[in-house]
Amino acid sequence: MATAAPEAAEVVEEEPKKKKPIVLIIGGVVGLIVLIVGIVLGTLFFTGYFNPKPVVDPELAEGAADGHGAPGAPGDKKGDGKPSKKTKGSPELTRFEYTYMQIEREFLVNVSGSKKVMSVQIAVMTHYDDRVFENVKKHDFALRSAVMDVMRLTTDADLVKPEFRKELAVKIRDSMNTLLEKYEDFGGIEEIHFTNFIVQ
Domain-by-domain residue ranges, the chain? Predict the structure, then answer.
């Protein structure tokens, strides 16, 4: 009888050791499930899945079905969903309204092959509605990178050309529109205006 008691004590010591690996396995599985769910929700959030869906005007949808309207904004005759142009209330003729938006931060780059620095502040102009400006704000980082890539190609010889600022404005506009067309299927920026231009 004295020998049976130590064996029972040994059995009691082994049981907690068996439970620990099971608890670790269950904890690992739960942790893995939480990680997978977090990744899926994060991906859906960053791709815009949870963003509110645009409200469709029943009259526009009906017009699009008849071939007389478009799924885009009112007055969009092309049927491609692009922003419509804003018009001024002029009884004599249709005139488009110019709208501007200042890009908040300045652009600062080194002039190629020189110790000079070029600092500019720009505003964009469009005849289209506010969706163009919303897209510019939405893709701010990508657009800043594209503008600075264009500006970095400037050399000292370019700076003395009489038409340099106009040519630079056209290059910046084209690079911004190309990027917006890539991400939003429509550019809409018609002119670039320099509100500040310094070369030192």
Answer: 83-199
